[in-house]
Design brief:
heterodimer, A: alpha/beta, CBS domain Like, 6-stranded mixed sheet, 4-stranded antiparallel sheet, 13 helices, 14 strands, globular, B: mainly alpha, MetI-like fold, 2 domains, 3-stranded antiparallel sheet, 3% strand, binds adenosine-5'-triphosphate, binds magnesium ion, membrane (chain B), transport (chain B), transmembrane (chain B)
Chain lengths: 311, 360
């Protein structure tokens, strides 16, 4: 049996007036996949995401979610079953933080104590002060508002989560924490996550599946390492490479793949088992050694092995 | 400061403070405040001066000014009691220009330093009245003589204003919703409702009578429902036509003012259109709508006055009766309650609006 993609976008074109926001886009996202959408501003990332909960209706083509054509599903029920953290956040200005977070559970008819417990859990998960629950959104900083937006998307524990630039307004430290938190949520719950981001590092680090959009078309679609590999399309390498696509590529390849049967010299620096080739290169550069060892492995990692990744 | 000076000047200069006449139809003879009250004039003068004194905190200044206004009124009442004591019961004492200038300037001073002290003025006036201090003033004589008619006029007035407001809401709410959903339709409505405002109110009231008469002739069954071409119907219809614009405009503005991101979020969370309206659009529209509602309430109380011309009764009828008889006191008897009702409605609505503007 072939696993059904949980999100299937088949030959979709979206036209707004005279401009095509998406042109003949086909994308399959499997259950439990973490899929990142990247691309320049206006390339259609948000539009593609909004097809999934039917906030955007295709001009041509079909969108299936959990195997069902979304055009045949009642929109409110579909949307309640999908978490959505919006690019513009869009908290309800007249409702408290707790009420905002509890929106979908309330629509689903949960009882008040259950909603209150869930809100408390989510505030803790997103590292928001529990006392913040009674505040109105205008009393939040931009980063806090974004985190409340993510909590609201997670509230009813949806199996599909859409996140449109969810970490845009938070400081780098919190951003890293939230990134780690998102990775943890994904690992623990097995949710299918669709994430729009302008940060290529974030996309490559978090996602198991990266989709590059350009002018409404899918330019590339695959595993992170393949998209920055030397044979990938120049536009994609440039977008994702951060000026040093070679190094970024190495950072996505495991050092274990370059193990050499020769043993490491006595006293050589040791690499962790999950180290990347970029990590290995960094340690080599620092230590000045010729070869490095790896925990739990007999062989060694050598400069020529790292640089031979291409072969 | 300047207000207090004006009030004090009105009390000290030889302006007619009170007019004393042998009966209500003959013109009176002017008496200045100094002549009427002697050195007692010093009481309101000092209080009003204190009211304007910058060193005093706002509440104290407002309180002094309020007491000053009450003292002016008390002075007029006492002078009337005194001057009319040896005259026939038909003799009248009415307010003169000096009184009005002092009262208006004094009230403005109160409003400036602490408007809520207006309440103290009302209480003070009520106490003076209850103690008989104002009994011989023509306005009070007139009010006592017509107490029942006046009371029923006030209720009629409020009922007419309430009915017009309800009717205007009944029209404006669906129109605002339709215009919100179809902006082009909304533009047409805006133009039509603004067009009504261009018609002078008196003309609209008068115009409705022949129109309604024609309608009733065409559909006599309407008469059986108690509808008539004169009376409450044209008054309510015409007033409602004017109120529709502020109500419609504030509703439309409120609906349009909702943050589009919040509305989109509501949609994305899986709210139905009805829920989005009830949970997001209306609550966000409320503060804007409250402003329009306040304007409409105050306008309703004022406009319904013209109902007096088309047989609808209410305080307008009292005012126009006074006008036709050149009876100033009768005019005032109708006009003062209208003013007070409008002020009270405005104050209450403003307080409600402020509460809405900053929830929880
Ligand atoms: N509701 C709409 N009406 C008209 N045009 C739209 C609408 N939504 C999007 N567009 C247009 O479609 C194109 C794609 O927009 P989209 O929001 O998907 O871009 P994006 O990749 O998310 O950009 P960004 O990174 O700036 O958020 C843009 O040219 C945009 O102007
Ligand atoms: Mg976008």
């Amino acid at each position: 049996m072939i696993a059904q993609p949980v999100i299937a976008i088949e030959g979709v074109t979206v036209r707004f007036g005279t401009t095509d926001a998406l042109r003949d886009v086909t994308l399959h996202v499997k259950a439990g996949e973490f899929c990142a959408l990247v691309g320049p501003s206006g390339s259609g990332k948000s539009t593609l995401m909004r097809l999934v909960n039917r906030l955007v209706v295709p001009s041509a083509g079909q969108v299936r979610v959990r195997g069902q054509d979304v055009a045949t599903l009642p929109a409110p029920a579909l949307r309640r079953s999908i978490g959505y953290a919006m690019q513009s956040v869009g908290l309800f200005p007249h409702r408290t933080v707790a009420e905002n977070i509890g929106t979908v559970p309330r629509l689903l008819g949960w009882d008040a104590p259950r909603i209150a417990r869930r809100v408390e859990e989510l505030l803790a998960l997103l590292r928001l002060d529990p006392a913040m629950g009674v505040r109105l959104p205008r009393a939040l900083s931009g980063g806090q508002a974004q985190r409340v937006g993510i909590a609201r998307a997670l509230a009813a524990d949806p199996d599909i989560l859409l996140m449109d630039e969810p970490f845009g307004a938070v400081d780098p430290i919190t951003r890293r924490e939230l990134r780690a938190e998102t990775r943890r949520i994904h690992a623990e719950t097995g949710k299918t996550i669709l994430l729009v981001t302008h940060d290529p590092e974030e996309a490559l680090e978090l996602a198991s599946h990266v989709v590059v959009l350009r002018d409404g078309r899918i330019e590339a679609d695959g595993a992170p390492a393949d998209l920055v590999a030397p044979d990938a399309a120049p536009f994609v390498r440039e977008l994702l490479g951060g000026g040093q696509p070679g190094l970024r590529w190495l950072s996505l390849l495991p050092a274990r793949g370059a193990l050499d049967p020769r043993p490491a010299p006595v006293g050589a620096a040791m690499l962790a088992r999950n180290a990347s080739l970029a990590d290995a290169l960094s340690v080599l550069a620092e230590s000045g050694d010729e070869a490095l060892g790896m925990e739990g492995e007999k062989g060694s990692v050598r400069a020529e092995g790292i640089l031979g990744a291409r072969r | 400061m300047i207000l207090a000076l004006i009030a004090i000047a009105a009390l000290l200069l030889p302006l007619p403070f009170l007019g004393v006449a042998p009966n209500r139809l003959l013109p009176g003879e002017g008496v200045s405040a100094l002549d009427a009250a002697g050195f007692w004039v010093a009481v309101p003068v000092v209080l009003l001066a204190l009211g304007a004194w910058r060193r005093l905190p706002g509440w104290a200044g407002a309180a002094a000014a309020a007491l000053g206004v009450v003292a002016v009124l008390g002075l007029a009442g006492a002078a009337a009691n005194d001057r009319l004591a040896d005259l026939a019961p038909a003799a009248r004492a009415s307010f003169g220009a000096g009184f009005w200038v002092a009262i208006v300037a004094g009230l403005s001073l109160v409003a400036m330093r602490g408007a809520w002290m207006g309440l103290a003025v009302a209480v003070g006036a009520a106490v003076l009245w209850a103690m008989g201090g104002l009994d011989r003033l023509s306005l009070v004589v007139e009010a006592t003589a017509r107490a029942d008619a006046l009371q029923s006029a006030i209720w009629t007035h409020l009922a007419l204003a309430g009915a017009a407001l309800a009717l205007a809401l009944l029209v404006a709410v669906p129109l605002a919703w339709a215009g919100f959903r179809r902006p082009r339709l909304g533009a047409v409505m805006g133009a039509a409702l603004s067009g009504v405002q261009v018609v002078p109110a008196i003309a609209l009231f008068a115009l409705l009578i022949p129109l309604l008469a024609a309608l009733l002739r065409a559909v006599p069954a309407l008469r059986d429902l108690g509808l008539g071409a004169v009376g409450w119907l044209p008054a309510v219809l015409a007033t409602a036509a004017y109120l529709a614009l502020p109500l419609w405009r504030s509703l439309s503005g409120g609906l349009a003012s909702a943050d589009p991101a919040a509305v989109q979020a509501a949609e994305a969370m899986g709210m139905t259109e009805g829920r989005i309206l009830a949970e997001v659009r209306l609550p966000l529209a409320l503060p804007v709508f409250a402003g329009g509602l306040r304007v409409a309430v105050v306008q309703a109380i004022g406009l319904v006055t013209l109902g007096g011309l088309v047989g609808a009764g209410g305080l307008g009828a009292v005012v126009f009766e006074g006008l036709s008889q050149f009876a100033t006191d009768l005019m005032l008897l109708g006009a003062l309650p209208i003013l007070l009702l409008a002020l009270a409605a405005d104050t209450l609505a403003r307080a409600a609006e402020n509460r809405l503007a900053r929830p929880a």
